[in-house]
Amino acid sequence: MKEAIAVINGGSSSIKFSLYEIGKDRRLESCCRGQIEGIGVDPNFTAKAGDGKEMGKMRWKNHPDVTHRFLLSYLIDWTSENFKDLQVKAVGHRVVHGGAHYREPVRVDEKILEHLGALAPLAPLHQPHNLAPIAAIAGLVPDVPQVACFDTAFHSTHTGPECHFALPRKLTAQGVRRYGFHGLSYEYIADRLPEYDKKAAAGRTVVLHLGSGASMCALKGGKSVASTMGFSAADGLPMGTRTGTMDPGVLLYLMQEKKMGPWEMETLLYRESGLLGVSGISNDMRVLLENESPKAMEAVDLFVYRIRKELGGFASVLEGLDAVVFTAGIGENAPEIRRRICEKFSWLGLELDDRANLGNGPRISTPGSRVSAWVIPTDEEIMIARHVLDVIGG
Ligand code: ADP
Questions:
Q1: What is the DSSP string of 79-91?
Q2: Nearest ligand 1 atom to alpha carbon 209
Q3: Residue with the nearest Cα to atom 1 of ligand 1?
Q4: Domain annotation for the chain: domains and CATH numbers
Q5: Confidence band (pLDDT; 50, 70, 90) for 394?
Q6: What lines the ligand 1 site, CB under 6 Å?
Q7: For atom 19 of ligand 1, which residue has the closest CA?
Q8: Model's pTM, two decimal places?
């Protein structure tokens, strides 16, 4: 029997999963990737093999009552049925918040699950949905080890002012501080960077993770020194539907004058703003780039402008810049956005190679460019699988 690692990324209405066979020399080989979407409405399961071929499909039409637990049980049965020669040795989970304590992936037991649950108020939209599959799997297959991998952990190297808000110390001590997110993606890029650019890997690099959620990370010698996201994943850049950094005065105004309560505020800040809010059209960058209306252009302009502002700030934090790396849905696939960001950094020595940029890289700066620019596809799932292997000592 061959051994495998399963990876789960649980969200409020979706469960993404991947399966990796543990090969010779602990090499991880992707056997399957899939997702269940529409949980709570119309759950829909799809899975593809490692080579991209369709492997499975299932729909529970008009079944809002199908629970996460039921779907995970379905997933476990489907995996045993379709991979009869594979034994899942452990399951890894993406968990958004590790707080100040969890700085590395950890094997989860009942007590740790309780600790992680106590962090839910710090990430109410993600943490409970990341933890629910851990509890469900523990009930279904209690002997299979489970490992939590944190989006905050890679940023635990932050020091000094990067960790603080200008708030009274008492609140900082209670955990109201900057953490940073998308850490598994940045860790993967930092791991791969030496293959592309040794100088950048050893030096000062800014990674731009531009997806539905978007953030940037400043790396010095491969270690995170700053992130645009702080206390929550709503901070920093404007995103698909999230505001990014807000003037706190606006929040006070909305509460005091517009009488908005916490849930209305949450909906506004996380679900109705960003590209969707500004354009009034879509949260999808593809749609906006194809739409010539001034509103769509304004949303894209704001996105690019705020990235440029942060990039200038990070170059200052890093005291110079050796490379920029674009990743995630927009970063990997939108040459137009990359061009509009890069062309404003010629003053720093970044010279874009237009043809390479149109071809999505990997190197998109000219050979003579003092600052190199790259497109490197991220892979948070394999990062989790590697961590699991390390934790369980496979
Ligand atoms: P997440 O994993 O956070 O849901 P992704 O990393 O998949 O997000 O990124 C989704 C974003 O990437 C969407 O805004 C989508 O429009 C954008 N995107 C994907 N492909 C392209 C493309 N070819 N051109 C422009 N944007 C794209």
A1: HHHH-TTEEEEEE
A2: 6
A3: 212
A4: 2-150 (3.30.420.40), 198-380 (3.30.420.40)
A5: low
A6: 211-213, 240, 284-286, 289, 328-330, 333-334
A7: 329
A8: 0.95
